[in-house]
Amino acid sequence: MLKIHRAEDRPTKKASADMFTGDVFQDAVLVGEAPSRMRATNVTFNPGARTAWHQHPVGQTLWAVAGVGRVQVEGGAVQELRPGDTAIIPPNARHWHGAAPDRIFTHLAMSEIGEDGGGTEWFEKVSDADYS
Amino acid sequence: MLKIHRAEDRPTKKASADMFTGDVFQDAVLVGEAPSRMRATNVTFNPGARTAWHQHPVGQTLWAVAGVGRVQVEGGAVQELRPGDTAIIPPNARHWHGAAPDRIFTHLAMSEIGEDGGGTEWFEKVSDADYS
User: Fold this and answer.
1) What is the CA radius of gyration of chain A?
2) Contact residues on chain A for B118, CB-CB shorter than 8 A
3) B79: closest CA among B70, B91, B67?
C-alpha cells in the first residue's frame, strides 16, 4: 500500500540541546520499515548552529537544500555546502555539520542503520574553535 | 574521507524517453558505495510528464520539493503530492509518479538496491487514461 505523510501532519521538532549547539529544527521525512534501512530528516540550522560530533554505521549523506552550511570530518578541513551540493560521510567517521556563522542552512540528512540495527553514535559538542 | 559533489560539477541529464513520458530532468545526488545501498536522484517533471510503470526491490521514497505532483501504486488511487509531502512505495509494487498536468514538479527520489544488488524494473508507459 502507498503511504503518504503530508507535510501539514508532521509538526517541525526543535532538536535536542544535548546533541546540537544553537537552534536546530527537524522535519521528519522517512523512517524506513524493513527491509529498508533508510532514515531521512530535513534539518534547518539557524546561523551558527551545528550538530555535536557524531558518526553513523553506514555513513551519512547530506543534500544541501537552502542557505550556506559547513561540514567537517575529523582530521579534515571544514568545507562549505551550498544548495545542490551533496556531502558523503564515510561509515564510522566522526563529523559534524551545520550552518555558516551568518547564514541559515537547510539540508536533507540521509543515512542507513547497520545490519545489526545500530544507528547514530553521539559525542561531545563542537567547540567554537573547531567550528571556526 | 569526506566526499563532496558540487552542484555545478554534475550537469542535469535529460531522462530517457524509453522510461519517461514528456520532458524529465535528473540531477544526481547519491549512488552509495557498499556497505551503503542507497540511491538518490532529484527529478524535475515538466507539466504532464511522468515515469513509466516501474518497481524497486526495497521500495522507493519520494520527497516532494517543489510544484504539484502525482503518484499511483497499481490498484490504488492517483494521489497528489505537494512540497514537504513524503510518499513511501512498498517493495516490488508497480507504480508511477510525475507532475500534475498543469504544474511543474520536483521530487527527491530515494531507493535502496536489493541484497543481491538488484535495482529498478521498468514496464510499459503510463497511458493518458491511467494518468488522468
Assistant:
1) 14
2) none
3) B70
Shortest Cα–Cα distance, B44 to chain A (Å): 13
Mind telling me how many Å the CA of B64 is from chain A's nearest CA?
A: 9
Q: Retrieve residue B13's grid coordinates.
A: 541529464
pLDDT of A51 higher than 90: yes
Residues of A with CB under 8 A from a CB of B: 1-8, 27, 29-30, 32, 35-38, 40, 42, 58-59, 61, 63, 65, 71-73, 76, 79, 81-91, 93, 95, 108, 110, 112, 115
CA–CA gap between residue B132 and residue B31 (Å, rounded): 33
Residues of A in contact with B66 (CB under 8 A): none
Cβ–Cβ below 8 Å for A2 and B90:
yes
Of the pLDDT bands very low, low, confident and very high (cuts 50, 70, 90), residue A74 is: very high
Which tens digits make up the pLDDT trace of A106-121? 999 999 999 888 899 9
Q: What are chain B's domains?
A: 12-131 (2.60.120.10)
Q: Where are the beta strands (DSSP E) in A52-131?
A: 54-55, 60-67, 69-73, 79-81, 86-89, 95-99, 105-112, 121-122
